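Standup notes
- DV: blocked on the single-chain target, sequence here:
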Amino acid sequence: MKTNKMSIAALVLSVFPFITLLLTFLGVTLSDNLRTPMAMTNCICTFAAFILAVFLVKNKEKRNVPAILALIISGLLLLVIVGILIFALLYNAAN
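- DV (later): unblocked, structure below
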């Protein structure tokens, strides 16, 4: 199977949110002005990677290992994002 540029793009988009995690492990603290755009960028990259990976995996000619990895990584990150949103909604509804 030949790796195409779309599957590499999906993989890069799905790995991009880990840059924020790496910054946290390195002890870099972001200001409030940078934290919100970085969180939005992480969410947008995760959604875009998931949608792109789903389209790639559904097409038999474009299905390859990077596309499947991108689908798994972005799917797990999407579950984390949805879990955080549900927790925030329930927490705010209780107060």
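- Follow-up: Residues 5-94 form one domain.
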